[in-house]
Amino acid sequence: MIYFDNVTKVYGDNSIGIEGVTFTVAPKDFVSIVGHSGAGKTTLLKMILAEDKPTSGSVFFESQDVHALDRSRIHDFRRRIGTIFQDFRLLPNKTAYENIAFAMEAAGRTDEEIEADVPHVLDLVDLGDKIWNFPHELSGGERQRVAIARAIVNQPDIIIADEPTGNLDPINTFEVVQILKKINDIGTTVLLTTHNKGVIDSLGRRVITMDRGRIIRDDEQGKYIL
Amino acid sequence: MFWTNVQRVVRAGFVNFWRSGFVSLSSVVVMVTTLLVIGSLLFVGTLLSSTLSQIESKVDINVYFNIDADEGSILVLKQNLENLPEVSQIEYVDRDEALAKFKERHKDDITTLQALEEIGDNPLGGYLNITARQTSQYEGIVSFLDSEVPTDEEGNSIIQNINYNQNRVAIDRLTQIIESAERFGIAVTVLFVVMSVMITFNTIRLAIFVSKEEISIMRLVGASNMYIRGPFVVVGMMYGLASGIIAILIFYPVTYWLGPITQNFFTGINIFHYYLNNFGSIFLVLVGSGVLLGAISSYLAVRRYLKV
After folding, report:
1. What is the ipTM of this complex?
2. Residue from A46, A102, A148 to probe the interface with B (highest B Cβ count within 10 Å)
Protein backbone atom coordinates (compact mmCIF):
# COMPACT_ATOMS: atom_id res chain seq x y z
CA MET A 1 0.00 0.00 0.00
CA ILE A 2 2.80 2.41 0.94
CA TYR A 3 6.31 2.01 -0.41
CA PHE A 4 9.26 4.22 0.50
CA ASP A 5 11.99 3.76 -2.08
CA ASN A 6 15.36 4.95 -0.74
CA VAL A 7 13.91 8.30 0.35
CA THR A 8 16.19 11.08 1.59
CA LYS A 9 15.19 14.53 2.75
CA VAL A 10 17.83 17.21 3.27
CA TYR A 11 16.60 20.61 4.48
CA GLY A 12 17.88 24.01 3.38
CA ASP A 13 20.29 24.24 6.31
CA ASN A 14 21.82 20.87 5.26
CA SER A 15 20.25 19.08 8.22
CA ILE A 16 19.01 15.60 7.35
CA GLY A 17 15.34 14.77 7.89
CA ILE A 18 15.49 11.18 6.72
CA GLU A 19 18.18 9.31 4.84
CA GLY A 20 17.96 6.28 2.57
CA VAL A 21 14.63 5.13 4.01
CA THR A 22 13.09 2.07 2.36
CA PHE A 23 10.11 0.16 3.74
CA THR A 24 6.70 -1.13 2.78
CA VAL A 25 3.35 -0.99 4.55
CA ALA A 26 0.86 -3.62 3.46
CA PRO A 27 -2.93 -3.12 3.49
CA LYS A 28 -4.50 -3.72 6.94
CA ASP A 29 -1.09 -3.41 8.65
CA PHE A 30 -0.74 -1.67 12.00
CA VAL A 31 2.73 -0.16 11.96
CA SER A 32 4.26 1.88 14.76
CA ILE A 33 7.22 4.13 14.14
CA VAL A 34 9.32 4.96 17.17
CA GLY A 35 12.39 7.06 17.72
CA HIS A 36 13.77 10.00 19.69
CA SER A 37 12.75 13.57 18.81
CA GLY A 38 14.39 14.52 15.52
CA ALA A 39 14.68 10.88 14.43
CA GLY A 40 12.64 11.68 11.31
CA LYS A 41 9.22 10.22 12.23
CA THR A 42 7.20 13.34 11.44
CA THR A 43 9.20 14.01 8.24
CA LEU A 44 8.31 10.52 7.12
CA LEU A 45 4.59 11.12 7.69
CA LYS A 46 4.75 14.48 5.91
CA MET A 47 6.16 12.67 2.89
CA ILE A 48 3.14 10.39 2.77
CA LEU A 49 0.75 13.34 3.10
CA ALA A 50 2.58 15.21 0.27
CA GLU A 51 3.24 18.06 2.67
CA ASP A 52 6.97 17.77 2.08
CA LYS A 53 8.92 16.60 -0.97
CA PRO A 54 11.86 14.18 -0.80
CA THR A 55 15.27 15.39 -1.93
CA SER A 56 15.77 11.99 -3.56
CA GLY A 57 13.84 8.74 -3.78
CA SER A 58 10.10 8.20 -4.16
CA VAL A 59 7.07 7.58 -2.00
CA PHE A 60 4.37 5.39 -3.52
CA PHE A 61 0.77 5.09 -2.40
CA GLU A 62 -0.83 2.16 -4.20
CA SER A 63 1.60 2.38 -7.14
CA GLN A 64 1.13 6.14 -7.44
CA ASP A 65 4.20 8.31 -6.84
CA VAL A 66 2.76 10.73 -4.31
CA HIS A 67 5.05 13.58 -5.29
CA ALA A 68 4.34 13.21 -9.00
CA LEU A 69 0.68 14.04 -8.32
CA ASP A 70 -0.70 17.15 -9.93
CA ARG A 71 -1.48 19.87 -7.35
CA SER A 72 -5.17 19.70 -8.19
CA ARG A 73 -5.22 15.97 -7.39
CA ILE A 74 -3.49 16.25 -4.02
CA HIS A 75 -6.81 17.14 -2.35
CA ASP A 76 -8.40 13.97 -3.71
CA PHE A 77 -5.42 11.96 -2.57
CA ARG A 78 -5.54 13.38 0.98
CA ARG A 79 -9.20 12.44 1.28
CA ARG A 80 -8.06 8.81 1.20
CA ILE A 81 -5.99 9.36 4.33
CA GLY A 82 -7.28 10.05 7.82
CA THR A 83 -4.90 12.10 9.97
CA ILE A 84 -4.67 12.38 13.74
CA PHE A 85 -2.19 14.70 15.48
CA GLN A 86 -0.82 15.21 18.97
CA ASP A 87 -2.29 18.75 19.07
CA PHE A 88 -5.67 17.51 17.71
CA ARG A 89 -5.83 20.17 14.98
CA LEU A 90 -9.55 20.79 15.19
CA LEU A 91 -11.06 23.88 13.61
CA PRO A 92 -11.52 26.16 16.65
CA ASN A 93 -14.60 28.01 15.37
CA LYS A 94 -16.52 24.84 14.58
CA THR A 95 -18.38 22.47 16.87
CA ALA A 96 -17.52 18.78 17.11
CA TYR A 97 -20.30 18.09 14.61
CA GLU A 98 -19.11 20.80 12.21
CA ASN A 99 -15.47 19.65 12.39
CA ILE A 100 -16.46 16.21 11.22
CA ALA A 101 -19.03 17.53 8.75
CA PHE A 102 -16.32 19.74 7.22
CA ALA A 103 -14.18 16.70 6.36
CA MET A 104 -17.24 15.08 4.75
CA GLU A 105 -18.17 18.23 2.83
CA ALA A 106 -14.58 18.47 1.58
CA ALA A 107 -14.93 14.91 0.31
CA GLY A 108 -18.07 15.86 -1.60
CA ARG A 109 -20.57 13.97 0.55
CA THR A 110 -24.23 14.94 0.48
CA ASP A 111 -26.10 16.69 3.30
CA GLU A 112 -28.13 13.54 3.93
CA GLU A 113 -24.98 11.46 4.36
CA ILE A 114 -23.51 14.06 6.68
CA GLU A 115 -26.64 14.21 8.82
CA ALA A 116 -26.66 10.43 9.13
CA ASP A 117 -22.94 9.72 9.58
CA VAL A 118 -21.70 12.47 11.88
CA PRO A 119 -23.86 11.58 14.92
CA HIS A 120 -23.10 7.91 14.29
CA VAL A 121 -19.33 8.39 14.22
CA LEU A 122 -19.46 10.62 17.30
CA ASP A 123 -21.38 7.86 19.08
CA LEU A 124 -18.63 5.43 18.10
CA VAL A 125 -16.04 7.53 19.92
CA ASP A 126 -18.46 7.97 22.83
CA LEU A 127 -19.10 11.68 22.26
CA GLY A 128 -22.77 11.55 21.31
CA ASP A 129 -23.58 14.01 24.08
CA LYS A 130 -20.91 16.57 23.07
CA ILE A 131 -22.01 16.96 19.48
CA TRP A 132 -22.50 20.77 19.63
CA ASN A 133 -19.52 21.55 21.84
CA PHE A 134 -16.68 23.67 20.51
CA PRO A 135 -13.12 22.29 20.88
CA HIS A 136 -12.34 24.67 23.76
CA GLU A 137 -15.28 23.18 25.64
CA LEU A 138 -13.84 19.65 25.43
CA SER A 139 -11.07 17.91 27.39
CA GLY A 140 -7.86 16.78 25.65
CA GLY A 141 -9.09 13.20 25.40
CA GLU A 142 -12.44 14.30 23.99
CA ARG A 143 -10.77 16.53 21.41
CA GLN A 144 -8.59 13.66 20.31
CA ARG A 145 -11.67 11.46 19.96
CA VAL A 146 -13.30 14.12 17.78
CA ALA A 147 -10.11 14.14 15.68
CA ILE A 148 -10.31 10.35 15.38
CA ALA A 149 -13.97 10.56 14.39
CA ARG A 150 -13.04 13.11 11.73
CA ALA A 151 -10.21 10.87 10.50
CA ILE A 152 -12.42 7.80 10.09
CA VAL A 153 -15.67 9.35 8.90
CA ASN A 154 -14.75 9.20 5.21
CA GLN A 155 -13.65 5.58 5.58
CA PRO A 156 -10.07 6.25 4.49
CA ASP A 157 -7.65 3.62 3.21
CA ILE A 158 -5.16 4.49 5.93
CA ILE A 159 -5.05 6.33 9.25
CA ILE A 160 -1.89 8.27 10.00
CA ALA A 161 -1.57 9.10 13.68
CA ASP A 162 1.31 11.39 14.64
CA GLU A 163 1.90 11.09 18.42
CA PRO A 164 -1.86 10.90 19.06
CA THR A 165 -1.38 10.15 22.76
CA GLY A 166 1.34 12.73 23.38
CA ASN A 167 -0.97 15.17 25.19
CA LEU A 168 -3.18 12.60 26.91
CA ASP A 169 -3.32 11.08 30.39
CA PRO A 170 -2.96 7.27 30.74
CA ILE A 171 -6.73 6.62 30.70
CA ASN A 172 -7.32 8.63 27.53
CA THR A 173 -4.18 7.13 26.01
CA PHE A 174 -5.59 3.66 26.60
CA GLU A 175 -8.95 4.64 25.07
CA VAL A 176 -7.32 6.14 21.97
CA VAL A 177 -5.17 3.04 21.45
CA GLN A 178 -8.23 0.83 21.78
CA ILE A 179 -10.06 2.88 19.15
CA LEU A 180 -7.07 2.66 16.78
CA LYS A 181 -6.96 -1.11 17.27
CA LYS A 182 -10.67 -1.37 16.47
CA ILE A 183 -10.19 0.73 13.34
CA ASN A 184 -7.41 -1.61 12.27
CA ASP A 185 -9.49 -4.68 13.09
CA ILE A 186 -12.16 -3.58 10.62
CA GLY A 187 -9.53 -3.46 7.87
CA THR A 188 -8.08 0.08 7.88
CA THR A 189 -4.31 0.40 7.72
CA VAL A 190 -2.85 2.35 10.66
CA LEU A 191 0.50 4.11 10.75
CA LEU A 192 1.33 5.40 14.21
CA THR A 193 4.25 7.38 15.59
CA THR A 194 4.72 7.53 19.33
CA HIS A 195 7.16 7.94 22.20
CA ASN A 196 4.99 5.89 24.50
CA LYS A 197 6.68 2.61 25.39
CA GLY A 198 3.56 1.29 27.08
CA VAL A 199 1.49 1.80 23.95
CA ILE A 200 3.98 -0.03 21.73
CA ASP A 201 4.49 -2.91 24.07
CA SER A 202 0.74 -3.37 24.58
CA LEU A 203 0.04 -3.39 20.86
CA GLY A 204 2.41 -6.23 19.97
CA ARG A 205 2.40 -5.22 16.29
CA ARG A 206 5.06 -4.28 13.76
CA VAL A 207 7.53 -1.61 15.01
CA ILE A 208 9.91 0.45 12.88
CA THR A 209 12.63 2.14 14.93
CA MET A 210 14.32 5.26 13.58
CA ASP A 211 17.44 7.08 14.65
CA ARG A 212 18.90 10.24 13.08
CA GLY A 213 16.82 9.85 9.93
CA ARG A 214 17.56 6.17 9.31
CA ILE A 215 15.61 2.99 9.97
CA ILE A 216 17.63 0.95 12.43
CA ARG A 217 15.10 -1.80 13.23
CA ASP A 218 11.95 -3.19 11.61
CA ASP A 219 10.39 -5.94 13.72
CA GLU A 220 7.11 -7.83 13.37
CA GLN A 221 5.49 -7.91 16.82
CA GLY A 222 8.23 -5.55 17.99
CA LYS A 223 8.95 -3.84 21.28
CA TYR A 224 9.95 -0.32 22.16
CA ILE A 225 13.75 -0.56 22.15
CA LEU A 226 15.74 2.69 22.18
CA MET B 1 -23.06 19.45 -6.29
CA PHE B 2 -21.71 22.80 -7.43
CA TRP B 3 -24.67 24.68 -5.95
CA THR B 4 -24.51 22.62 -2.79
CA ASN B 5 -20.87 23.63 -2.44
CA VAL B 6 -21.69 27.29 -3.10
CA GLN B 7 -24.40 27.16 -0.42
CA ARG B 8 -21.99 25.54 2.03
CA VAL B 9 -19.28 28.11 1.32
CA VAL B 10 -21.70 31.03 1.77
CA ARG B 11 -23.14 29.51 4.96
CA ALA B 12 -19.64 28.88 6.35
CA GLY B 13 -18.70 32.49 5.52
CA PHE B 14 -21.71 33.85 7.44
CA VAL B 15 -21.03 31.58 10.42
CA ASN B 16 -17.33 32.50 10.50
CA PHE B 17 -18.20 36.20 10.32
CA TRP B 18 -20.37 35.99 13.44
CA ARG B 19 -18.15 33.58 15.36
CA SER B 20 -14.95 35.56 14.79
CA GLY B 21 -16.62 38.46 16.62
CA PHE B 22 -13.65 40.62 17.61
CA VAL B 23 -11.63 40.00 14.44
CA SER B 24 -14.72 40.83 12.34
CA LEU B 25 -15.44 43.93 14.39
CA SER B 26 -11.91 45.30 14.09
CA SER B 27 -11.78 44.56 10.36
CA VAL B 28 -15.12 46.31 9.83
CA VAL B 29 -13.94 49.34 11.84
CA VAL B 30 -10.82 49.67 9.66
CA MET B 31 -12.85 49.21 6.51
CA VAL B 32 -15.44 51.79 7.59
CA THR B 33 -12.56 54.25 8.01
CA THR B 34 -11.33 53.37 4.53
CA LEU B 35 -14.76 53.85 2.99
CA LEU B 36 -15.27 57.12 4.86
CA VAL B 37 -12.04 58.35 3.26
CA ILE B 38 -13.20 57.19 -0.18
CA GLY B 39 -16.64 58.74 0.36
CA SER B 40 -15.12 62.00 1.59
CA LEU B 41 -12.94 62.13 -1.50
CA LEU B 42 -16.07 61.68 -3.58
CA PHE B 43 -17.77 64.63 -1.88
CA VAL B 44 -14.68 66.83 -1.92
CA GLY B 45 -14.13 65.98 -5.59
CA THR B 46 -17.69 66.98 -6.39
CA LEU B 47 -17.36 70.26 -4.50
CA LEU B 48 -14.03 71.00 -6.17
CA SER B 49 -15.10 70.23 -9.72
CA SER B 50 -18.40 72.03 -9.28
CA THR B 51 -16.67 75.10 -7.88
CA LEU B 52 -14.06 75.06 -10.63
CA SER B 53 -16.65 74.72 -13.37
CA GLN B 54 -18.64 77.58 -11.84
CA ILE B 55 -15.53 79.74 -11.84
CA GLU B 56 -14.81 78.69 -15.41
CA SER B 57 -18.33 79.56 -16.50
CA LYS B 58 -17.82 83.09 -15.21
CA VAL B 59 -14.90 83.68 -17.59
CA ASP B 60 -15.84 84.87 -21.07
CA ILE B 61 -14.51 87.00 -23.88
CA ASN B 62 -16.19 89.66 -25.99
CA VAL B 63 -15.56 90.30 -29.67
CA TYR B 64 -16.45 93.95 -30.40
CA PHE B 65 -17.39 94.97 -33.93
CA ASN B 66 -17.11 98.25 -35.75
CA ILE B 67 -20.19 100.46 -35.66
CA ASP B 68 -20.75 99.99 -39.38
CA ALA B 69 -20.14 96.24 -39.36
CA ASP B 70 -22.60 94.26 -41.44
CA GLU B 71 -24.88 92.24 -39.17
CA GLY B 72 -25.04 89.45 -41.73
CA SER B 73 -21.26 88.98 -41.53
CA ILE B 74 -21.43 88.97 -37.75
CA LEU B 75 -24.10 86.27 -37.76
CA VAL B 76 -22.04 84.16 -40.18
CA LEU B 77 -19.09 84.47 -37.81
CA LYS B 78 -21.36 83.54 -34.91
CA GLN B 79 -22.50 80.45 -36.82
CA ASN B 80 -18.87 79.46 -37.52
CA LEU B 81 -17.95 79.92 -33.87
CA GLU B 82 -20.90 77.83 -32.74
CA ASN B 83 -19.49 74.97 -34.78
CA LEU B 84 -16.26 75.01 -32.78
CA PRO B 85 -16.24 72.22 -30.14
CA GLU B 86 -14.44 74.51 -27.69
CA VAL B 87 -17.34 76.99 -27.61
CA SER B 88 -19.86 76.28 -24.91
CA GLN B 89 -22.08 79.34 -25.32
CA ILE B 90 -22.25 82.33 -27.64
CA GLU B 91 -24.51 85.35 -27.57
CA TYR B 92 -24.85 88.15 -30.08
CA VAL B 93 -25.60 91.59 -28.64
CA ASP B 94 -26.55 94.04 -31.35
CA ARG B 95 -25.82 97.76 -31.24
CA ASP B 96 -29.15 98.79 -29.67
CA GLU B 97 -28.94 96.10 -27.03
CA ALA B 98 -25.32 97.05 -26.34
CA LEU B 99 -26.41 100.66 -25.79
CA ALA B 100 -29.27 99.62 -23.52
CA LYS B 101 -26.94 97.45 -21.48
CA PHE B 102 -24.38 100.22 -21.29
CA LYS B 103 -27.03 102.66 -20.03
CA GLU B 104 -28.27 100.16 -17.49
CA ARG B 105 -24.73 99.55 -16.28
CA HIS B 106 -24.07 103.28 -15.91
CA LYS B 107 -27.47 104.37 -14.70
CA ASP B 108 -25.93 105.98 -11.59
CA ASP B 109 -23.14 107.65 -13.54
CA ILE B 110 -24.75 110.89 -14.68
CA THR B 111 -21.60 112.25 -16.35
CA THR B 112 -21.30 109.27 -18.63
CA LEU B 113 -24.98 109.31 -19.50
CA GLN B 114 -24.80 113.06 -20.30
CA ALA B 115 -21.76 112.48 -22.52
CA LEU B 116 -23.70 109.76 -24.33
CA GLU B 117 -26.63 112.17 -24.87
CA GLU B 118 -24.32 114.80 -26.26
CA ILE B 119 -22.98 112.38 -28.84
CA GLY B 120 -26.57 111.84 -29.93
CA ASP B 121 -25.97 108.79 -32.07
CA ASN B 122 -25.27 105.26 -30.74
CA PRO B 123 -21.47 105.11 -30.48
CA LEU B 124 -21.38 101.41 -29.61
CA GLY B 125 -20.96 98.53 -32.00
CA GLY B 126 -22.47 95.08 -31.51
CA TYR B 127 -20.45 92.32 -29.91
CA LEU B 128 -20.32 88.57 -29.45
CA ASN B 129 -20.07 87.21 -25.93
CA ILE B 130 -18.28 83.84 -26.02
CA THR B 131 -17.94 81.27 -23.25
CA ALA B 132 -15.55 78.36 -23.79
CA ARG B 133 -15.88 74.94 -22.20
CA GLN B 134 -12.52 75.40 -20.49
CA THR B 135 -10.53 78.54 -19.81
CA SER B 136 -7.52 77.04 -21.58
CA GLN B 137 -9.51 77.01 -24.84
CA TYR B 138 -9.83 80.79 -25.24
CA GLU B 139 -6.48 81.04 -26.93
CA GLY B 140 -7.65 78.63 -29.63
CA ILE B 141 -10.87 80.56 -30.17
CA VAL B 142 -8.95 83.82 -30.52
CA SER B 143 -6.58 82.16 -33.02
CA PHE B 144 -9.62 81.07 -35.00
CA LEU B 145 -10.92 84.65 -34.99
CA ASP B 146 -7.52 85.91 -36.14
CA SER B 147 -7.48 83.48 -39.03
CA GLU B 148 -11.11 83.92 -40.05
CA VAL B 149 -11.34 87.69 -39.81
CA PRO B 150 -14.58 88.86 -41.46
CA THR B 151 -14.10 91.93 -43.60
CA ASP B 152 -16.29 94.66 -45.06
CA GLU B 153 -16.63 95.53 -48.74
CA GLU B 154 -13.32 97.38 -48.67
CA GLY B 155 -11.53 94.43 -47.19
CA ASN B 156 -11.11 95.92 -43.70
CA SER B 157 -11.69 93.83 -40.61
CA ILE B 158 -15.08 94.38 -39.02
CA ILE B 159 -13.66 93.39 -35.62
CA GLN B 160 -12.69 96.37 -33.57
CA ASN B 161 -11.34 94.61 -30.54
CA ILE B 162 -11.24 91.27 -28.65
CA ASN B 163 -11.01 91.75 -24.92
CA TYR B 164 -9.12 88.46 -24.48
CA ASN B 165 -5.90 90.32 -25.09
CA GLN B 166 -6.54 92.64 -22.13
CA ASN B 167 -7.63 89.76 -19.86
CA ARG B 168 -5.10 87.24 -21.11
CA VAL B 169 -2.85 87.30 -18.04
CA ALA B 170 -5.79 86.87 -15.68
CA ILE B 171 -7.31 84.04 -17.78
CA ASP B 172 -3.99 82.23 -18.08
CA ARG B 173 -3.41 82.53 -14.35
CA LEU B 174 -6.89 81.21 -13.64
CA THR B 175 -6.37 78.36 -16.10
CA GLN B 176 -3.15 77.48 -14.30
CA ILE B 177 -4.86 77.54 -10.89
CA ILE B 178 -7.74 75.37 -12.12
CA GLU B 179 -5.40 72.84 -13.73
CA SER B 180 -3.20 72.71 -10.63
CA ALA B 181 -6.25 72.28 -8.40
CA GLU B 182 -7.51 69.42 -10.61
CA ARG B 183 -4.10 67.73 -10.66
CA PHE B 184 -3.74 68.16 -6.90
CA GLY B 185 -7.23 66.73 -6.41
CA ILE B 186 -6.43 63.67 -8.52
CA ALA B 187 -3.07 63.14 -6.77
CA VAL B 188 -4.62 63.41 -3.31
CA THR B 189 -7.47 61.08 -4.33
CA VAL B 190 -5.08 58.46 -5.72
CA LEU B 191 -2.82 58.73 -2.67
CA PHE B 192 -5.67 58.32 -0.18
CA VAL B 193 -7.32 55.53 -2.14
CA VAL B 194 -4.02 53.62 -2.37
CA MET B 195 -3.36 54.15 1.34
CA SER B 196 -6.86 53.05 2.26
CA VAL B 197 -6.67 49.96 0.06
CA MET B 198 -3.32 48.99 1.57
CA ILE B 199 -4.57 49.45 5.12
CA THR B 200 -7.65 47.34 4.39
CA PHE B 201 -5.61 44.69 2.64
CA ASN B 202 -3.22 44.43 5.58
CA THR B 203 -6.07 44.27 8.08
CA ILE B 204 -7.72 41.42 6.21
CA ARG B 205 -4.36 39.72 5.77
CA LEU B 206 -3.86 39.92 9.52
CA ALA B 207 -7.35 38.53 10.13
CA ILE B 208 -6.56 35.61 7.82
CA PHE B 209 -3.10 35.13 9.36
CA VAL B 210 -4.94 34.31 12.59
CA SER B 211 -6.60 31.48 10.65
CA LYS B 212 -3.35 30.16 9.17
CA GLU B 213 -3.48 27.01 11.27
CA GLU B 214 -7.13 26.53 10.36
CA ILE B 215 -6.25 26.65 6.66
CA SER B 216 -3.53 24.02 7.11
CA ILE B 217 -6.05 21.74 8.85
CA MET B 218 -8.52 22.20 6.01
CA ARG B 219 -5.79 21.24 3.55
CA LEU B 220 -4.96 18.15 5.54
CA VAL B 221 -8.53 16.87 5.51
CA GLY B 222 -8.46 17.19 1.73
CA ALA B 223 -10.47 20.36 1.19
CA SER B 224 -9.98 21.87 -2.25
CA ASN B 225 -8.55 25.38 -2.60
CA MET B 226 -11.95 26.73 -3.65
CA TYR B 227 -13.55 25.16 -0.61
CA ILE B 228 -10.93 26.65 1.74
CA ARG B 229 -10.82 30.06 0.13
CA GLY B 230 -14.57 30.46 -0.44
CA PRO B 231 -15.66 31.19 3.15
CA PHE B 232 -12.82 33.68 3.63
CA VAL B 233 -13.84 35.54 0.48
CA VAL B 234 -17.46 35.56 1.70
CA VAL B 235 -16.29 36.95 5.06
CA GLY B 236 -14.28 39.63 3.22
CA MET B 237 -17.36 40.56 1.21
CA MET B 238 -19.40 40.75 4.40
CA TYR B 239 -16.81 43.10 5.92
CA GLY B 240 -17.26 45.27 2.83
CA LEU B 241 -21.06 45.11 2.89
CA ALA B 242 -21.33 45.93 6.60
CA SER B 243 -18.70 48.67 6.32
CA GLY B 244 -20.34 50.20 3.24
CA ILE B 245 -23.73 50.37 4.95
CA ILE B 246 -22.22 51.83 8.14
CA ALA B 247 -20.22 54.40 6.15
CA ILE B 248 -23.24 55.54 4.16
CA LEU B 249 -25.27 55.86 7.35
CA ILE B 250 -22.50 57.95 8.94
CA PHE B 251 -22.53 60.28 5.92
CA TYR B 252 -26.21 61.13 6.48
CA PRO B 253 -25.77 63.25 9.64
CA VAL B 254 -22.34 64.48 8.52
CA THR B 255 -23.59 65.85 5.18
CA TYR B 256 -26.75 67.15 6.88
CA TRP B 257 -24.54 69.19 9.21
CA LEU B 258 -22.13 70.27 6.47
CA GLY B 259 -24.86 71.07 3.92
CA PRO B 260 -25.50 74.73 4.86
CA ILE B 261 -21.77 75.34 5.35
CA THR B 262 -20.90 74.05 1.89
CA GLN B 263 -23.81 75.98 0.40
CA ASN B 264 -22.38 79.26 1.70
CA PHE B 265 -18.76 78.42 1.05
CA PHE B 266 -18.80 76.54 -2.25
CA THR B 267 -20.86 78.67 -4.63
CA GLY B 268 -24.24 77.30 -3.64
CA ILE B 269 -23.67 73.54 -3.56
CA ASN B 270 -25.44 71.87 -0.64
CA ILE B 271 -23.58 68.63 0.00
CA PHE B 272 -26.58 67.14 1.83
CA HIS B 273 -28.76 67.66 -1.24
CA TYR B 274 -26.03 66.10 -3.35
CA TYR B 275 -25.98 63.10 -0.95
CA LEU B 276 -29.77 62.68 -1.17
CA ASN B 277 -29.98 63.20 -4.94
CA ASN B 278 -27.14 60.77 -5.63
CA PHE B 279 -27.83 58.28 -2.84
CA GLY B 280 -28.02 55.32 -5.23
CA SER B 281 -24.69 56.06 -6.89
CA ILE B 282 -22.95 56.79 -3.58
CA PHE B 283 -24.38 53.58 -2.12
CA LEU B 284 -23.12 51.62 -5.10
CA VAL B 285 -19.66 53.19 -4.95
CA LEU B 286 -19.21 52.67 -1.20
CA VAL B 287 -20.79 49.23 -0.84
CA GLY B 288 -19.44 48.09 -4.20
CA SER B 289 -15.88 49.16 -3.48
CA GLY B 290 -16.14 47.71 0.05
CA VAL B 291 -17.35 44.33 -1.16
CA LEU B 292 -14.82 44.26 -3.99
CA LEU B 293 -11.98 45.32 -1.72
CA GLY B 294 -12.94 42.71 0.88
CA ALA B 295 -13.24 39.94 -1.67
CA ILE B 296 -9.97 40.70 -3.48
CA SER B 297 -8.02 41.21 -0.24
CA SER B 298 -9.29 37.91 1.18
CA TYR B 299 -8.65 36.06 -2.06
CA LEU B 300 -5.05 37.26 -2.21
CA ALA B 301 -4.41 36.85 1.52
CA VAL B 302 -5.56 33.20 1.58
CA ARG B 303 -3.59 32.35 -1.54
CA ARG B 304 -0.23 32.37 0.22
CA TYR B 305 -1.41 29.75 2.71
CA LEU B 306 -2.78 27.44 0.03
CA LYS B 307 0.58 26.53 -1.43
CA VAL B 308 0.97 22.82 -0.90
Report:
1. 0.80
2. A102
